[in-house]
Amino acid sequence: MSLLFxxxxxxxxxxxxxxxxxxxxxxxxxxxxxxxxxxxxLKNSKVVPQSLADKQLIFFLNTYKNDVDKSAAxxxxxxxLKKSAPEFFKDRIVDSxxxxxxxxxxxxxxxxxxxxxxxxxxxxxxxxxxxxxNFDSAAKTFIMMNEAYNYYxxxxxxxxxxxxxxxxxxxxxxxxxxxxxxxGIKFLEGGMPYNIKAVHVFNTVSFIDWIIAIxxxxxxxxxxxxxxxxxxxxxxxxxxxxxxxxxxLPKEYGGTLGTLDELQQQSTERLMNLKDYFIxxxxxxxxxxxxxxxxxxxxxxxxx
Length: 304
Known about the structure:
The protein is of the alpha/beta class. 54% of the residues lie in helices and 10% in strands. A hairpin with a 7-residue loop joins strand 1 and strand 2. The chain is globular and about 55 Å long.
């Protein structure tokens, strides 16, 4: 029991250090009443942890802008998918060899919130050797970076993803299993608690049409419509004007921020600071801990 008390106390401190909950409610035009209704809607769920705090539930409510029924369905789907994909959601230890290998060999960068209030995340290869790449580990790290963004910035209307295919070869295409790819795409499309505004892909490779043909059966048409492919001769001035301003991009993309290496270091440090958060998040699915926290839920809900 002492261990549970210690973990519970640490969880409260973790939540206190996260984004400003009251400011997020006002910014996104959400209500505490609907948060309470969403919690009530989920109280008999067999997959959703009852210990989810308001600071966690708000992301789901924001996805459907106060539609409690749709938000509840999204929470259910999210935790069902998490349970079915341990390769992405189990052992999320930020200082483990697995995660550190990803952070050393690929870029996972949380860029500033855009002027129109959207999440902005960048991902690409750093080391182009396919032998150091593992799809399941990369997907796990990418999802963790998304959650870290949520922790620091709170709910936002939509997310914009920036991917760069520079250095990608055909050897990478056969890395992920069909099962892992299907689970990853399913979670991206219907399990994450935010809407995708756009997916920009830089430096498209000669076999990009083949890649799309492979994943197209797994993607819904709505996501395909949000996909923007950019060749190596991209006019960055037009990109800045039409999509993302240079004030929010790395130097390598004509931006005024730091280099990819500099920004990666900053994002990695912020991710490393959330080691205990990810340990707790995984423990929420532990029945004994979930039940203990549920008994003290009022204390958790009232953490600003």
